[in-house]
Amino acid sequence: MSSIFRCIDCGKSYPLEVKTKCECGGLFEVKHEFREGIRRDIFDKRVGSPNPIIKSGVWRFKELVYPGLDNNHIITKPEGNTNLYTSKLISSFVGTPNLYLKHEGENPTGSFKDRGMTVGVSEAKRLGVNIVACASTGNTSSSLASYAAIADLKCIVFVPEGRIAYGKLAQTLAYGATMIQVKGSFDDAMSLVQQASEELGIYLLNSINPWRIEGQKTIVFDLIQQLNWKPPDWIILPAGNLGNTSAFGKALTELEELDLIDEKPRLAAIQAECADPFYRLWSTGSSLLEPNSEAKTVASAIRIGNPVNWKKALSAIKNTNGVVEHVSDQEIMDSKIVVDRSGIGCEPASAASVAGAKRLFDSGVIDKGEKIVCVLTGNILKDPDSTIRYFEGDLPGIKSNIINSSKIVEPSMRDIRKTLEL
Ligand code: F0G
User: Fold this and answer.
1) What is the mean pLDDT of residues 117-135?
2) Which of 302, 310, 311, 324 to mutate to test the pocket of ligand 1 (most atoms within 8 A of CB)?
3) Does 287 map to a domain?
4) Residue 107 in contact with ligand 1 by CB distance below 6 A
5) Ligand 1 in reach of 386 Cβ (< 6 A)
6) Ligand 1 pocket: which of 158, 219, 246, 377 to mutate (most atoms <8 Å of CB)?
7) Atom of ligand 1 at shortest range from CA of 168
């Protein structure tokens, strides 16, 4: 095998196996021995390929993701190849013309999680496991449920009771997962699923599993390739359990090591103000994350108080000369409405990246003229409740700047004229 697991705490190496954590409790990362001669044009030639595997925006980069995996094990829908948008409306809201939006909500199940899940579930097939599980605020569970169904694996998901958005709840159940609603927070569900997988021999597919990180690296590969291998100055992303922040840092380090880019962009990880343990860690210069047991935000996807990947994410921020910022729920919803009104659309957590870009721009951390990419992590349809309640002026704690509720009319032109004031 050209890849191994290495513990990020004690440095011990392991062969690739079912275990997803070191004996010392530390997280694994995958270390690849990359083959010689990996060049940009290898990946460029594959864009638009009809080949069922390499047409995936994840497996196009197989040499950088899982070089030794037998293609027969790959479970792909395919995923990735998401659009990189520009928008005058969003640019003028943030205050810079040089802004792109990488829409990961265009993945098959509507979030970036599919990029990690295609790799994680393919590995589950290689290992021959029968049951997979995760804890989730709804997107991970939707993605795992879908890929598990394709791979014919039993899927169990642990979600915080009553706290996941409706679209995600429906999706996860529809794909056939067994859903356990835990009376508690996402963090409670996360610690329970770890115990359950250790005691019941279930393969864990949260981003603790290092293969998830390998797949999510391809968001960065994909967007830099779309920019003709000229990296932006900044990549800005929402941050919850910190899998993506970790993955982005690893992707950039590897691209630089392989001479595929000349310079690394800076990462900006954006948290919600009342669910911001990583922001507090970074801004106080502390070396230990203090969990927040009362995490709260309208962006339910990132309502997380004890992110499992904080050590990897901290390295990612440090290695890219990055920053961590936080934004209020009002800023998140105001940004979401601008993204929606631009015709692009996203779920609330995704808009944290745009809100964060605006804050960093307003405070002078980002310079005018710098090129920035905001990652939109989830689809607009994931959380219909918060959108409708915003437009009805009925979202607790949020001031609606636009009201747009539907109008009920009698089936007559007179009523139509009156309603439209025409
Ligand atoms: N945006 C969306 C739409 C998400 O669903 C998540 C995480 C994040 C951002 C944060 O990403 O955890 O890598 O920092 N959702 C997880 C889930 C927790 O269970 O679906 P992260």
Assistant:
1) 98
2) 302
3) yes
4) no
5) no
6) 377
7) 20
Residues 319 and 235 in one domain: yes
5 and 100 share one domain: no
The whole-angstrom separation of Cα 210 and Cα 422 is 59
Provide DSSP, 47-66.
Answer: TT---TTTTSTTGGGHHHH-
Q: Residue 359 domain-assigned?
A: yes
| 54: in domain | no
Q: Do 353 and 281 share a domain, yes or no?
A: yes
Indicate the pTM of the whole model: 0.98
Q: Are 320 and 286 in contact (CB under 8 A)?
A: no
Number of neighbouring beta carbons within 10 Å of residue 153 = 19
Q: How far is the CA of 240 from the centre of ligand 1 (A)?
A: 6
pLDDT per residue as tens digits for the range 354-390: 999 999 999 999 998 999 999 999 999 999 999 999 9
Q: Are 342 and 276 in contact (CB under 8 A)?
A: no
Same domain? 2 vs 98: no
Domain residues for the domain of 20 are 1-33
For the Cβ of 239 lying below 6 angstroms from any atom of ligand 1, the answer is yes
Together in a domain, 96 and 9: no
Chain mean pLDDT for the chain: 97
CATH number, residue 326? 3.40.50.1100
- Say if CB 190 and CB 306 are below 8 A apart: yes
**Dihedral angle at the C-alpha atoms of 274, 278, 280, 285, nearest 10 degrees?**
180
Interval between CA 301 and ligand 1 midpoint (Å):
5
In Å, what is the CA distance from 304 to each residue of 163, 261, 280? 11, 33, 13
294 and 363 part of one domain: yes
- Cα of 354 vs centre of ligand 1, distance in Å, is 16
Q: Does 402 fall in a domain?
A: no
Domain count for the chain: 2
